[in-house]
Amino acid sequence: MNSHGSTKKLVRLSLFSAAALIIFILEAQIPSLIPYIPGIKLGLANIITLFLLATHTKREALAVLMVRILLGSFFAGQMTSLIYSLAGGLLSFIAMCAVINLTGTDSLWFAGVTGGIFHNLGQILAAFILMQTSAVFAYIPYLVIAGIFTGLFTGICSMFHVKHFRRIFSQKSNKEKNP
Amino acid sequence: MRKKFIILSAITAGIALICISAILTARPQDGDMAYIYQDGVEVARLALDGSDDGKIITVSGENDAENVVEVIDGKVHMLSSTCKDKICVNSGWRDSTGTPIVCMPNKIVIDVKGDSDE
Q: What is the SS3 string spanning B63-112?
């Protein structure tokens, strides 16, 4: 029974990893919305991370996030982009965990906003450490605002995702109970 | 629930307002000199007062990395780069202080500074 459950879990997390990876790679093909300010992107793959944080455990969400970042950088990026993705991804993950602990899962849009802001802050921090130039801090206000809007978008998307997922699963468990 | 929504919205709007005011109050000054940094070390500087117009500087790095910086009409831009994302090339032109041009994969920063801040 236990091994049945863990296989189920493995398959489910693999599916979410694949979905996040596809979103990540497709999004990398979209040209930058505002080329004057580098680093602005929607961060659509964060929808999956937020969704897992709301419906699964933090450990499972972190596992999917790490698989997505590692494979995404191997497939779509260079070695340096892995460092930036890790810095942004992990910092935003910690921030989103803290926010969800505080606000609960019904305010996912705010966790998305926090995630967006801290993702961009993490990337600026990584840029500062790698390039040893404080000039990159000039981007902080621009990227925080960008993080608010992109995070709001991904946060609202993940709220819809959670809503539909719960409906599908409650229908399914009803069917299993009364076939 | 409603109260929480209002509090969280207020926090979000507050952060946005702080950042917008930070952008609006930091009026960029005219830049006199573009400093090119590689790995945090200054490798070149280009005057933006017209004396370096038409000048092209190539910065080479490890793994055949190469970035070409050009000055025209007192404005600096990244002409080309061997990096994959080309964010630096698409960042456009700079002639005033404010945001630098950054090439993250090749660790190149072009920062424009004015007279007052050295």
A: CCCEEEEEEECCEEEEEEECCCCCHHHHCCEECECCCCEEECCCCEEEEE
